[in-house]
Amino acid sequence: MKLWEMLFVRATVDRAESTGRFRHVRLRAGALRDAEWRPGQQVRLHVGAEGALAPVLRTYSVWDRAGDTVELRVLLHGDGPGARWTAAVRAGDEVLLSKPKGDFVTRTAPYHLFVGEETASVAFGPMLRALPEPERAASRAVVEVAGPEDRLDLDGDVTWVQRDGESAADSKGLVRAVQLLDLPGEPGRAYVAGEARTVQAVRQHLVRDRGWPRRSVLTKPFWTPGKRGME
Ligand SMILES: Cc1cc2nc3c(=O)[nH]c(=O)nc-3n(C[C@H](O)[C@H](O)[C@H](O)COP(=O)(O)OP(=O)(O)OC[C@H]3O[C@@H](n4cnc5c(N)ncnc54)[C@H](O)[C@@H]3O)c2cc1C
Predict the structure, then answer these.
(1) Considering only CA atoms, which residue is closest to atom 47 of ligand 1?
(2) Do residue 195 and residue 116 come from a single domain?
(3) Which domain holds residue 179?
(4) DSSP letters spanning 65-96
(5) Predicted confidence band at 4 (pLDDT cuts at 50, 70, 90)?
(6) pLDDT tens-digit profile of 71-99?
């Protein structure tokens, strides 16, 4: 058995459907039943040809988890290996995946701020759902999408920003929307994910303009132009 076969679980695709540019993929594997998952964590999928010398891996946040399944929401764009695998996948296919892991998870705070684009909203969904009241009631999310059809169902107070044909990379629109937010005087806890340069710009605004401590802003770059598979 190869090393990577010991680190990954073989799952069956249970469901694969599309809404907007999102593909909803549910994976089922007995080994997932007891796997721990904290909202905001991700799995890594083998999206290349099985048996290839070097596995091609792509990372996807877990949208939901129940029993022996994980639900993913993969945004289709371009023709990278992740996009090709996701566009072609059908119920009954098999795939190797890692168990959920990662430290992009909520910490206790008086309120939470979630900022990102479509791919980041996949992580935000379960993070918001799992927050205890009144933390969720006091939370804010700012999510940039290409159009309304790419809005995922997020709990809480969400400001949707429409991209209107602009690039998702180094997004001025998302930063502006965060600048315009009426937030409490005291810092909360921010979770900023998605395109790397936009993530940096949002963090810079919170730290430099609003005086939030750096440790209060948790960042996770998911992708950036010209870079293939960030993790
Ligand atoms: C921790 C983590 C969690 C993630 N969670 C999700 C998730 O839940 N859902 C999801 O769809 N993706 C998620 N991603 C992104 C995902 O891992 C891949 O980067 C993405 O699917 C692109 O893979 P690819 O093989 O199709 O393209 P690649 O070959 O990796 O990239 C090809 C080109 O596409 C560009 N690109 C990548 N993503 C985008 C985008 N969103 N918009 C425009 N251009 C892009 C790249 O910059 C690159 O130039 C996550 C990434 C990380 C690191």
Answers:
(1) 225
(2) yes
(3) 112-223
(4) EETTEEEEEEE--TTSHHHHHHHH--TT-EEE
(5) low
(6) 999 999 999 999 999 999 999 999 999 99
